[in-house]
Write a structure and sequence with these properties.
Blueprint lengths: L1 E6 L2 E6 L2 H18 L4 H11 L6 H7 L7
Antiparallel strand pairs: 1-2
Amino acid sequence: MKRSYKKGQTIVMNNLTWHGLLYSYIQDRVRQLQSSGFTGEELKRILSKEIGHERTNVIDIYAGRDFSYV
């Protein structure tokens, strides 16, 4: 199964993996939670519970530096 996403002006296609799905889910949820008013540690605590992690710093890795919730 393939997935595609836009990176700058380029459309990238690659194989769909569990890690890729998790990455996409977290990126989407960060945006949703931000638009609902959640920020910082509260946002990371919610997401880390949703994905089954106990450490909130895992969200930093998946969310990337493009997010301003920290």
